[in-house]
């Protein structure tokens, strides 16, 4: 490496910041006119969360939002990705249901405060918290005729209320998780599954594919509305964000090479191919046949090209072998164990996550070459093993997370500066430890430690590393750009 290489930096307009989601942090579930979401009652059912706890308080960010913004400003982030709670805006959710002015005021004040602190609001419209009333009324995401119209109306209310101040919109977060975990495996709300020990109703062979289809259409018609009625005046960017991890063949066996592509087709291509290329992957058609819904020509015209960028949530890499029995993984067997018996990387608290930054670079290249649009990395992070058992002092020394981000940031820089991948943003998950869905509060992804007894926030070493790294690795702007130093006094 030459001295010139050392000085290369990400472009001045590169966006970085931290990410959260409404149900995971807000709490105040019955405050300010909010209606229930599907996660409210679901998280209270015995056995649905690992520690039996729910989202009623979470990190109390509905009350502590000013403190949160103050900390973000201390971290000197360029942007903050957060989500709006649909049932705070429209408590019953539907297109003919009343709008809640207190919900509008809360997010309007929040966005104003971000802007006053020089922080770009990066807004997710839907991060898994469907209004319970819509699920009860007509089955929620299962009902195409209703949900598309209701979601588009919700989006319109947000564009009207906040669009003058928001230039970055994400329609829907991780449709694979909505579909598979909510309607296939049944581990996320609304918890539907063919497994009658888990759920009294549901059909895992059909419902996930119906839901995924309806999520795509809801996203696409909301984008159509934005482009036709708001973009000219507001000038924003809008797109969807998809989860999906890198899939690497277990070895050079052609069947395993093919299996890795099949894994990508089901994890990513299921949503990305229709949205960016205009069709479902051939492999999904082959395995699902008539269980995979079809778009009408009119719908497909709206779906194709319905994202201004590629929103990417990714955490790990899977070694892939042919012959798995899980349809939701494309009949591919995932492992972290190499043929020689060694592990791919450091194990996180969650069984599905190991540290392998080379896979992050490979996935960025794959997405860029396949879909050829700017990439916004909207989630990426690591949960340190047994962090919930550590003292605060021990938890703040989150070396495994620091090492994860060291590898990822190097890979990010290499992908942009050496490979020519057009990456525009990077949002580590998460700003705070928070309610981690079915894991309750046991799994901690935050770069900021939250003491749930006191709601005190403490920056971890990973936060300090990231703030310093982005301070040093983005070209300076007119004001010398934000330095990578912050005070935690």
Task: Describe it.
- The protein is of the alpha/beta class.
- The chain is built from 18 helices and 13 strands.
- It has helices at residues 3-7, 22-25, 38-42, 65-75, 86-89, 101-116, 132-138, 144-162, 175-183, 207-229, 231-234, 254-277, 282-288, 297-303, 357-371, 392-396, 399-417, 461-473; strands at residues 15-19, 79-83, 120-126, 168-173, 237-243, 246-249, 310-313, 317-322, 332-335, 375-379, 423-426, 448-451, 456-459.
- An eight-stranded parallel β-barrel has the order 1-2-3-4-5-7-10-11, surrounded by six helices. A three-stranded mixed β-sheet has the order 6-8-9. A two-stranded antiparallel ribbon has the order 12-13.
- Helix 15 (357-371) runs parallel beside helix 17 (399-417) and helix 17 runs parallel beside helix 18 (461-473).
- The two termini are 39 Å apart.
- Residues 479-483 have low confidence and may be disordered.
Could you give the distance between the termini?
39 Å
The largest sheet has its strands arranged as 1-2-3-4-5-7-10-11
Report Rg: 21 Å
For the secondary structure, the number of strands is 13
Question: Which secondary-structure class do the elements indicate?
Answer: alpha/beta
Overall average pLDDT: 96
Strand % is: 5-15%
Shape estimate: globular
> How large is the count of helical segments?
18
Please estimate the helix content.
40-55%
Low-confidence stretches: 479-483
Largest sheet: 8 strands, parallel, barrel
